[in-house]
Amino acid sequence: MDSSGGEVEYEPVSVKAVLSEMKDTAELLIDLSFSAVLSGSDDVAREVLALEARMDLLQMRARMSLLMAARTPEDAEQLAPVLGVVGAAEKISDAAGDIAKVVLEDIGLPDAMRAALPEAVETLVRAGVAPESEYAGRTLGDANVETETGVRVIAIHRGTVEQSSTSDQNAGRSDNENWITNPDRDTELRAGDTVLLRGPDDGVATVYERATGEAYEPPAPPEPGIEDLERAVDSIVLMKNISELAVDLAYGSVLFDSAAVAEEVVELEAEVDALQSRFEAWTLQAAARVDDPVSLRGLVHLANATEVISDAAVEISEGVLRGLGTHPVVAQAVSESDEVIVRLTVAPGSEFDGVTLGDRAVKTETGMSVIAVRRPHRDEDDRDGEWVIQPGPETRLRAGDVFLAKGTRSGAERLGELTGSG
Asked: CA–CA separation, 290 vs 225, rounded Å?
């Protein structure tokens, strides 16, 4: 059965392409679901549920193909971790759907939550491409959106089902699907498309106006009004950030077959569990002090869904943790996905040798986020060296340091040049 109740029959598909689309979709869903909560937007929440339904279909196709490929016990051993990656992506999708339902079902959520989210959620806006828009009929490369404004078009919802062009197929869109989850510079924007934009506020405002012909009015977050809930709200925001980092590191552990990175994912998941436990205690204490305890239900939903995302991160890296290694199809899918993860080494005398991440403003200059740094190993027993997780602006890089970064392909190339790895 597909998400709309129709029959799904087996058809030969590229497992690599399906896994890549599932990764992109799962990561998009995390951002989109929290953005729906931040803005209180039913429209954005419905987009989340539409993508969740798409994910259900993708995971069914992936499972069918993997079952067809398993012919011997050796095949089953190699493919078991791939099934884990498929299941984890679907689990993230379901969690995002639960977050969206907080908005759609008007589940109680204190104003303090929406006031805290802007610091944790990068601006993500949904905009329609008007017929008279300067973008209509142009490719993303021709429109030069990201270079001029710093804004990425991270997904496109095509309003009508049409025969897809070559560029659409390259962007991961099949002939009968409405979503383009990893558009590239060759993807054409059309009148009637709905684009999802992510980037700095001023850039988003510019692209929104050019696409829709209307001025962008960002939602005004309310001031925190329930002091007793501040610790509970802060814990959810921290859980979200740690869970997203865990997912990024999990895919990094798979891509580079690194048990050390996979073990960091387990540590982060344990940290999320501890935060959830403290959150529950703080929420129960606050419930006795607020006029309407039912208004706190949304917080419980958010915390539970966020904890599921961290659990899924462990599932992604489980094959590496258990010594089964990484199946080539998974590594290729991660490397060819929308937001790439790269591993770079700081070369002696390069622009990054001896400077902090803040000195170079890596995020601003390249659009890449450094998610982990590994110092050179200290002895023969310390093969992977010391990992610095969640490096900040004060983190100093030195020659020989290895780091994982996430972002666009063009940003990865630029970062490679600066570190001397390009």
From this structure: 11
- HSE at residue 89, side-chain half, CA atoms within 13 A, is 31
State the CATH number of the domain containing residue 378.
Answer: 3.30.70.1450
Say what the pTM is: 0.73
Q: Which residues of 268-306 are buried (b: 16+ CB within 10 A; e: fewer)?
A: bbebbeebbeebbebbeebbeeeeeeebbebbbbbbebb
Pick the more confident residue, 393 or 324: 393
pLDDT at 177 over 70: no
Two structure tokens written together for 16: 């690599």
For the CA atoms of the chain, what is the radius of gyration? 22
Tell whether 244 is covered by a domain: yes
Q: pLDDT for 382-393, tens place per residue? A: 445 567 777 878
Q: Are residues 32 and 48 in the same domain?
A: yes
As given in the structure block, the two tokens for residue 408 are: 């666009």
Q: Is 370 in a helix, a strand, or coil?
A: strand
Structure tokens at 302: 């958010």
State the pLDDT at residue 96.
93
Maximal CA-CA distance, the chain: 64
Phi, psi for residue 164 in degrees, rounded to 5: -75, 145
Q: How many CB atoms lie within 10 A of CB 251?
A: 31
Q: How far apart, in whole angstroms, are the C-alpha atoms of residue 109 and residue 220?
A: 16
Domain that holds residue 361: 339-419
Residues in CB range of 22: below 8 A, 6 or more apart:
55, 58, 59, 62, 86, 89, 90
Number of structural domains (the chain) is 3
Q: Which of 22-36, 111-125, 402-416 comes out lowest in average pLDDT?
A: 111-125
Those residues whose C-beta lies under 8 Å from the C-beta of residue 26, and which sit 6 or more positions away, are 55, 89, 92, 93, 96, 247
User: 9 in a domain, yes or no?
Assistant: no
| pLDDT tens profile 40-86 | 778 888 889 988 988 988 888 888 888 877 777 777 777 888 888 88
Q: Count the neighbouring beta carbons within 10 Å of the beta carbon of residue 416.
A: 17
Q: Residue 211: which residues within 8 A CB-CB, separation 6 or more?
A: 127, 128, 129, 130, 133, 135, 195
Q: How confident is the model at residue 405 (pLDDT cuts 50, 70, 90)?
A: confident
d(CA 73, CA 25): 31
Same domain, 100 and 233: yes
